[in-house]
């Protein structure tokens, strides 16, 4: 793969919609140190601190130095751990509720510029005409080159109804585009649905937020009100970057047998060694109300296809993995991102307005599979378009990220983005320019049409490309046929953690 594509990295929840995260919020943990503090190294750190204070060219604020030291220490661990200052912590909490103030774009870095990965539907950026692939070269009068991604994002954030002028470089345009955009509160619609045709429905989860389970229950109730004899359901998790853990458990619980194991976790702390079940107490925001209790029993048995791609990460991989292990649904699409770790957000004293987002556990499917740096291998591989997978196969995966955690179950299981030379990359980019933007759930959605074909027992156009790693239960590279009759995973496998 070219270095250009390797430099694209998605960032966290908030104005940016492309996080790959499974988040749980923890109270402050007052823990005793398990080992003596390294006094020599701490003295060295104090010496460096004193040297900066006495010898640096100008005065540096104590708090700034210490905050940057904490930030660097946490960031050195893995791609998903981070120190959250007051503003970042507030934005993260708001993001889990599905709202934030900003422009509404998912961004990365490329050649020193901010690259637009995708605008959020109906956001200020979307309405202004910003497109995937645009390079942002200036933010107001400030050149982007030389800024870190975090610095650029902070400049794009701001108060509601304030304006920012973006200078955009677009490959098909000879001159830069100057766009002035008004920041607004963005409300991301977590769940979308519609009856596609008589007997068949589409349910899309774009991101796992705190309201997701309640929103999904309402959408499913509306589907059954319109189609009481539903013949097939497509659960669309493509480009779903993850989110909060209870959302993933609740979505899984809607389709699995009661009290089933959905996911298990394992880390250093005793509290990280847990199993999470399809029970109300694991997903309901209100302990006295179960949003799934009013859904029809038929939902547990309706034939299902789950659509995934390389943008499906973390919480969406939990759902796909659980439904796959219980043979409850056929997983279709392309191999997923491969983020199999849990981030705990821990507020810091004294004011609890700052926090650390710390990787505290790996997670495992009900059959004990680790998704970390591997992802979910679909039962049926289907490309994004009839003529191939487009740029989907070139996206970064977890295994491409610097300092990513290894897969503790299979050391050789890591799956990276497809290697490709510059000429093929340019050919794919030119091909993508000729396509209309793909709207998931539309009549032009090729993978959705193949999912419907499968539900109807019609032929499916499978991908010519083989998955990089086959599921351990597959004997060859032939896509798995839908001969699954029951929806119970083997009890002996459920106990493997």
Automatic annotation (TrEMBL):
Q: Please note every region of biased composition (Basic and acidic residues).
A: 465-497
Q: Is Protease among the key words of this record?
A: yes
The record's section on InterPro entries has: ClpP/crotonase-like_dom_sf, CtpA/B_N, PDZ, PDZ_6, PDZ_sf, Peptidase_S41A, Tail-specific_protease
Q: Which UniProt keywords apply?
A: Hydrolase, Protease, Serine protease
Residues covered by the PDZ domain: 89-157
Q: State whether keyword Hydrolase applies.
A: yes
Q: Where is this region: Disordered?
A: 457-497
Q: Tell me the superkingdom of the source.
A: Bacteria
Family assignment from sequence similarity: Belongs to the peptidase S41A family.
Q: Which NCBIfam families match?
A: prc
**Protein's name in the database:** S41 family peptidase
Q: Which organism is it from?
A: Herbaspirillum lusitanum
């Amino acid at each position: 793969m070219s270095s250009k594509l390797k430099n694209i990295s998605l960032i966290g929840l908030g104005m940016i919609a492309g996080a790959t995260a499974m988040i749980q919020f923890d109270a402050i943990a007052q823990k005793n140190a398990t080992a003596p503090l390294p006094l020599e190294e701490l003295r060295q750190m104090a010496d460096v601190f004193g040297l900066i204070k006495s010898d640096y060219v100008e005065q540096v604020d104590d708090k700034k130095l210490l905050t940057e030291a904490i930030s660097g220490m946490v960031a050195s661990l893995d791609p998903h751990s981070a120190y959250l200052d007051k503003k970042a912590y507030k934005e993260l909490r708001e993001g889990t509720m599905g709202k934030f103030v900003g422009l509404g774009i998912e961004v990365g870095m490329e050649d020193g510029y901010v690259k637009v990965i995708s605008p959020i539907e109906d956001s200020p950026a979307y309405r202004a005409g910003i497109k995937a692939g645009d390079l942002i070269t200036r933010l107001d009068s400030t050149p982007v080159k030389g800024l870190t991604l975090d610095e650029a994002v902070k400049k794009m954030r701001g108060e509601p109804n304030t304006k920012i002028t973006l200078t955009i470089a677009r490959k098909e345009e000879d001159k830069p585009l100057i766009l002035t955009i008004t920041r607004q509160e963005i409300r991301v619609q977590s769940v979308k649905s519609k009856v596609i045709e008589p007997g068949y429905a589409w349910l899309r989860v774009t991101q796992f937020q705190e309201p997701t389970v309640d929103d999904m229950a309402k959408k499913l109730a509306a589907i059954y009100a319109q189609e009481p004899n539903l013949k097939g359901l497509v659960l669309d998790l493509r480009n779903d970057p993850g989110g909060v853990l209870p959302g993933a458990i609740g979505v899984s619980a809607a389709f699995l047998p009661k009290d089933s194991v959905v996911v298990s976790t394992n880390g250093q702390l005793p509290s990280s060694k847990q199993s999470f079940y399809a029970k109300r107490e694991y997903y309901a925001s209100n302990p006295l109300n179960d949003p799934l209790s009013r859904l029809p029993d038929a939902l547990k048995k309706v034939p299902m296809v789950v659509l995934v791609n390389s943008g499906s990460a973390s919480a969406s991989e939990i759902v796909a993995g659980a439904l796959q292990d219980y043979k409850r649904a056929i997983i279709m699409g392309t191999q997923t991102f491969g983020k199999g770790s849990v981030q705990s957000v821990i507020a810091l004293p004294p004011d609890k307005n700052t926090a650390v987002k710390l990787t505290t556990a790996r997670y495992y499917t009900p059959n004990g599979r680790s998704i970390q740096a591997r992802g979910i291998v679909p039962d049926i591989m289907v490309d994004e378009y009839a003529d191939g997978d487009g740029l989907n196969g070139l996206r970064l995966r977890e295994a491409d990220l610097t300092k990513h955690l290894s897969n503790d179950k299979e050391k050789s299981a890591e799956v990276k983005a497809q290697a490709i030379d510059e000429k093929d990359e340019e050919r794919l980019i030119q091909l993508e320019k000729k396509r209309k933007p793909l709207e998931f759930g539309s009549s032009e959605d090729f993978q959705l049409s193949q999912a419907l074909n499968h539900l109807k027992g019609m032929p499916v156009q499978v991908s010519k490309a083989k998955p990089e790693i086959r599921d351990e239960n597959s004997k060859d590279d032939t896509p798995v046929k839908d001969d699954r009759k029951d929806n119970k995973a083997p009890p002996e496998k459920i106990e493997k953690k």
